[in-house]
Amino acid sequence: MNRVSTLPDFSRLEVAMDQWSAPFWQAGGEHRLVMPRCTACATFRWPPGPFCPTCRAKAVAWVPPGAARIHSFTILAQPGADKDAPPQWRMPTLVEFADAPGVRLVSVLIDAPCDAVAIGDPVEIVWQPAANALVPVFRLRG
Ligand SMILES: [Zn+2]
Questions:
Q1: Which portions of the chain are predicted below pLDDT 70?
Q2: What is the three-state SS of 1-51?
Q3: Angle CA(67)–CA(36)–CA(28) in degrees, nearest 5?
Q4: pLDDT digits over 85-111, tens only?
Q5: What is the pTM (predicted TM-score) of this model?
Q6: What's the rounded Cα separation, in Å, for the pair 22 and 17?
Q7: Which of 83, 128, 131, 132 has a 20 to 30 Å separation from 13 between CA atoms?
Q8: Domain segments of the chain: what residues?
């Protein structure tokens, strides 16, 4: 069977933002991925929050987290519109980054052959429109 992962419909997804995550979504609106890194001890703070989990400092710099690769994934079949329609294949994926140890972003992998994906595969970001923001999804790089 030729199973290829597809993009979920995000058109009605309202992204929840707060004062700590707003810079992430603002940069995403410009197709840039940045994450908060503590300016005192260099720990990435993900998800964004008011204090560093390591040293309790408040200040952060928003920086790119480096090259992305698959940390983990699963494959789901979403039923088609009727009983004879083929399913849509979805791949919820945890993405990790070369320069941000311990940081994992929950996303989806799109346009991927489901039977040929492996943990550690390099991926690249594709920003997709939701109701109030662009959201990061990924596809295999190369
Ligand atoms: Zn810190």
A1: 1
A2: CCCEECCCCCCCCCCCCCCCCHHHHHHHCCCCCCEEEECCCCCECCCCCCC
A3: 65
A4: 989 999 999 999 999 999 999 999 999
A5: 0.92
A6: 6
A7: 83
A8: 22-140
How many angstroms separate the alpha carbon of residue 125 from the centre of ligand 1? 27
Ligand 1 center from residue 82 Cα (angstroms): 52
- For residue 52, report the distance from its CA to the centre of ligand 1, in Å: 5
Residue 131 in contact with residue 12, Cβ under 8 Å? yes
- Dmax over CA atoms of the chain, in Å, equals 58
User: Separation of 23 CA from ligand 1 center, angstroms?
Assistant: 18
Say how many Å lie between the CA of residue 87 and the centre of ligand 1.
45
- List, for residues 14-24, the tens digit of each pLDDT value: 999 999 999 99
